[in-house]
Amino acid sequence: MNKHAPSQDFTVPALLFLAPAIILVATFVVYPIVYSGWLSFHQWNGVSTPIFVGLGNFARLATDATFWLSLGRNIVVAGTALVLQVFVGLAIAYCLVRVVPFVSRFFLFCYLVPVMVSEICIGLLWRFLYNPYFGLVNGALKAIGLGDLQRGWLGESDTAFLAVIVVMSFTYLGLYVLLFTAAVRSVPESLYEAADLDGANHFTKFFRITIPMVWDAVRANVLLAIIGSLKTFSLVFVLTNGGPNQASEVVSTYLYKVGFSSFEMGYAATIGFAQMVLTALAAWIIFRYLRRATSGGED
Question: Which of 119, 232, 282, 288 is deepest in the core (most CB within 10 A)?
Answer without folding.
Answer: 232
